[in-house]
Amino acid sequence: MLLQQLFNLIYSKRRNMADPTPIISQLTNLVNKQGFIYAYCTLVLKNIAIAPSDILDVNWTNRLNHKELSFLLGLMIKNPITLELPKCKFSFERQQKKAGRLLEELHNSVSLSEFPSFSDLQSEKFNSVEEILKLQPLVEPIFYDNPGAYDFQWLELASYRYAYDEEWFENSLGISIQSMINIAVEIKGTRANPRENECANTDLLDVFCIDPTQLHSEPAETVNRFFDLFSCQPGEANKKFDHINDVNDAEITPLIMLDQRYFLADHTFLNQSIYESPYYWMCEDNKYSQQALRNRGPATERIVYHILFDSNQNGRTYQGVNILKGKQIKAEIDVLFVYSNKAFVVQVKSKKLTALAKRGDRSKLKNDFQIACQGAYTQGLSCRSLILNDNTVKLVNNKGSRVNISSVDEIYILCITGDSYPALQAQQRALLEKKEGDPFPLIMSVFDLEIICSLLKDQIDLLYYVSQRTGLGNQYIMNSEMEILGLHLRSPLGKSRDFDVVVPEPQLANVVDVLFPASKGQPLPGVDTSTVISSYWTENTKSLHAELKHLGGPFVVDVIFSFYGLTSEFADRVVSTFDSAKMQTMLDGKMHDCSFRLEGGELGITLTSFPIYFTSAQVRSICFKLALRHKSDADKWFGLISIQTSSSVVDGYWFMNRNWSSPQIKIRNILT
To answer: Residue 457: helix, strand or coil by DSSP?
Structure first.
């Protein structure tokens, strides 16, 4: 009893600290101090303007993030900003330290605001990890999530997002989306690079300010229109800005008017506004709002289609696929990607988090998640079930052509949001409703999808990543998709036999920070991407993978997937043993084979080298018998085949599942 009273006392005191209002009040007073804008500039330089050579080693959890800095700026623009210098150097330093301390207190307060009471925890009975994760706090991860995209991604995808609205841009805004993009690119190219400036206080504004008259990528009247749309006047903005997740004019109109110049804290703020703000302006136009809504879905589907199509030329990608039973449409797939015997059913939504949801209204959070993710998952499940379980259905794409999916034996469900949707991983753990036995979806934004497809250009690499992400469910717990992607780039994902839950290091996302810009033709200066990650596979194993892909066949993906489940050392041992068997056959003209079974009985491997005088029928017969012999020895068993006189690494394979009555066999056509 005494212990419970002690815990209740601790919880009570901690929850009393959970009201952020006094801290926000102190921050509001601080940002109105003389010269605070210079302290703010220094905070930006110290926390997000990082030298490229340091990116891999940065611990972002120890720094202020974009949201905290935009929140400070949002408080600043509630009143006119004084450009007077701080009274003294010590005043300047005190302002920085106090801002950092108050923002840390604010973070602690937000974290504690959703902390369950001790009695609440006692009353819960947890039978699984999933039940514990339902208590996941959400306000804190929503506010402290990363920006959701790289600054250039916002601009790259904005032209697709508003492809159907170009006429409205010209008639209602007086500027095209492409002109907006051109000006934003020029601003970034001509502005001083904060990382390269060691500035005295008086020079800081030169680093962060823009003079519109110095921009020439578009006519002067177009530039002026751009600044009219994306600027705000301190003292006239954010009149009702009082909470961390309130609508912030510093994010909607991030060009802050200071005398004849405009202050821009970070390019990400401006580029994100170009991607997001025009949609809200369209919705305010009563004559166009309904058309804007109708355009939004197809535009987002088009973005997803192009990402998958452009990144995976060897796969088949379709937009707008109907599943028909007879003449009746039973379900619709927004985007379908097919490669060999695997497929993605991609359902796309354009829902954003509402203001009430960001403030922590649990019912509103759930409602938003239902529209943005849960609904997409339910649709995906229905499509998956129809394709895999009803052989009477047929698929027809938006051009009226039949889509052949006869060989598909596994379908992964992807739910894609058209906007950056903060804390998606946390929300999925807390809010996703699924029946036992149903597969997990992979839920992410369109920006994350582009990153994954850019860094996993090999179709089987992409398929394997998605298969593991959906197959491992909640075993991996992370703040963002980039953390687990960084982990995968270092070593292929797999089920941990040692831990029920794996939490990747947040710094693994830094690997993506280096590799993704380089993959888009924007490498970080002075950073050698070839040294960021070493290849998991040896050259021999990579050659084997390439030969298997070239050999093709409906189950080649499963065979290569099996290699991902091996350690790199074991995979190389398999290849070396395979080479030795082939060499022995060349020496004595006899058949040689050997088998491995992995501990745990999940996988077995047989390697067989045949002399040239064996016929194709004989090889098939022997492989068939080998497969049946090992059928009950492991969940899956595959065999690699080589022919004595072939110059190829591998000349065939067979694949056997414990539940099948016969194996699938593929042999190169070089035998009689």
So the answer is: coil
